[in-house]
Amino acid sequence: MEGIRMKTKKTLVTAILCATILLTAGCGGQASTTKSTGSAAASSKATSAATSTASNTAADAVDGVSLTNPIKVDKEAKTITVLCSINGQYLTQPTRHASIFKDGGFGTKSIFTAYGKPLDFYDALIEIGAKEGGNMTADNKETTHVEGDPIKCEVTWNGAGKYYDFNEVIIDSNKKPIEMRFGGNRKASEAKNTGCLSCLDSCPVGIISNTTYTYGAVETRGEVGFTGNAEILPDDGTYVAVRYTLMK
């Protein structure tokens, strides 16, 4: 009888020890799982932060141009790309300016606020082989159409999926085509410091301008008004890349 009791007691002790071992192993597994989950969360958070940082860094980078590199020249393709941003004011109000350098005297008066300087833009056009018209002066501006090599102007932005021609994103109230020419005007641009890269009527200061109208068509004679096409262009302040292509 005593032997049976001892055997039963040993069996009970063995069972308790086994249960203790199993419980301990279970806690260890749970701790391991918790630790793993914590690491995954930290890793996910780090990845998210990195993605967010990359996204913020890339906000001003559009098709190879950025705030640190606002003008890109491709001599082989005969293109110049300039970083700009949308000036939402001119999605509803008319202007005679397509793009002006942000620190120029007229820096707030264009549909596209440029981060590249007009003299750098002029030099880039010469670099890709463009020939200036050189026919505009302060005296003849209201009766003369700008000459020079034709320049195709297009714009894109992150998510646009394509380049849009100026004739798609700038509305001429008369529905006439915008035809940009390389007028030149380097000396006048430097002297006046308006910052004008591209004007929407023939201009004696802007590096390129629209030969369709003579100077004063917008502001003096009220023959036409130009606004950005709000149905296509992105919101105010959005960074865009404006690409200029020599057409010859």
Can you describe what's shown?
This protein is an alpha+beta fold and 248 residues long. The chain has one domain. The protein contains 4 helices and 12 strands, in the order αββββαββαββαββββ. Residues 1-57 have low confidence and may be disordered. InterPro entries: 4Fe4S_Fe-S-bd, YdjY-like. It comes from Catonella morbi ATCC 51271.
- The helix/strand series, from N terminus to C terminus, equals HEEEEHEEHEEHEEEE
Percent helix, as a range, is: 25-40%
What is the average per-residue confidence, as pLDDT, rounded to a whole number? 84
Main sheet overview: 8 strands, mixed, barrel
- Anisotropy-based shape: globular
| DSSP summary, beta strand count | 12
Judged by helices, strands and strand pairing, the structural class is: alpha+beta
Portion in strands: 15-25%
Assembly category: single chain
The tally of helices reads 4
Domains (count): 1
The first-to-last residue Cα distance is 114 Å
Strands of the widest sheet, in order across it, are 2-4-3-9-10-8-5-12
Radius of gyration: 33 Å
Give unreliable regions as ranges: 1-57
Concise overview:
By secondary structure, the protein is an alpha+beta fold.
Structural descriptors:
globular; 248 residues; 8-stranded mixed beta barrel; alpha+beta
